Amino acid sequence: xxxxxxxxxxxxxxxxxxxxxxxxxxxxxxxxxxxxxxxxxxxxxxxxxxxxxxxxxxxxxxxxxxxxxxxxxxxxxxxxxxxxxxxxxxxxxxxxxxxxxxxxxxxxxxxxxxxxxxxxxxxxxxxxxxxxxxxxxxxxxxxxxxxxxxxxxxxxxxxxxxxxxxxxxxxxxxxxxxxxxxxxxxxxxxxxxxxxxxxxxxxxxxxxxxxxxxxxxxxxxxxxxxxxxxxxxxxxxxxxxxxxxxxxxxxxxxxxxxxxxxxxxxxxxxxxxxxxxxxxxxxxxxxxxxxxxxxxxxxxxxxxxxxxxxxxxxxxxxxxxxxxxxxxxxxxxxxxxxxxxxxxxxxxxxx
Length: 351
Prior knowledge:
By secondary structure, this protein is of the alpha/beta class. It has 17 helices and eight strands. It has helices at 10-17, 32-48, 66-73, 94-108, 127-130, 133-138, 154-164, 171-181, 185-198, 206-214, 217-230, 233-245, 250-272, 277-283, 288-300, 306-320, 332-344; strands spanning 3-6, 24-29, 51-58, 81-87, 116-122, 142-146, 167-168, 202-203. The strands form two sheets. It has a six-stranded parallel sheet, with helices on both faces. A two-stranded parallel ribbon has the order 7-8. α7 (154-164) crosses α8 (171-181).
């Protein structure tokens, strides 16, 4: 069963597996975007294979690791197959955690068609940790190495991502984009998605790419994001009204608000499971003033409210595309305002 794969090859590996999943996967890397995409690919394959239940636990050296063993041994009342995700953001499980991981790895080797698929999420490990007893035990399963994309490879990476949405541009423009995102893969991903929202399929002119990436209006949508996080209801509504009056593309506005909600939902989930909020934010590239505002929003909005907000963002996207959503307003801008106010007005009396 022991295999080590690059993240780029992992989707093909899952497809070739034909729905037969290994009992143990270890996903290791420091690039949040690529780690998330790798996890999402495995979750999708698990759902297709009938693993309808998913449990996520964020662990470290101080955690109660007996809860992990209990989770692997409990039986679903409905006989559902499930995926159990153990995220260890520090890469340091401690002695109890190390013993538990060794035991779980040993159990996994005896399962040909597992009812529970175990997924271990780790940062990139140093050599000493890779040679530890627990890391070597995990290597008996399927290991996915999520490597970073260095500056030299970034233009080609951007080009490949544009090709996924059936767009392309010249090499000089790809180099220019790589310079503007300064090696930040998440920023590059966001700019690529924005180009997909603003322009049709086909060749992208250099001036169109530069206009989109440098567009001053994007700072307006980031200002909207900041007002929402700060809980400034009046400013949030005014900025949305202004963006609408100026003819700003609503998909771009939804991207700014919806992406923030999705990111903070992940932080809230980690915090609720006892994870290190600061470490999670660093992995998601939330720093400085943005971090302070994000903490304000996390303090106002209950952890249980974030998944509903993520679903609301998906529903706004459907309305923008002209699809009716029961219980939602037909005007996408009005529903966009309701979405932003879920965060801005949370914690206020009468909100």
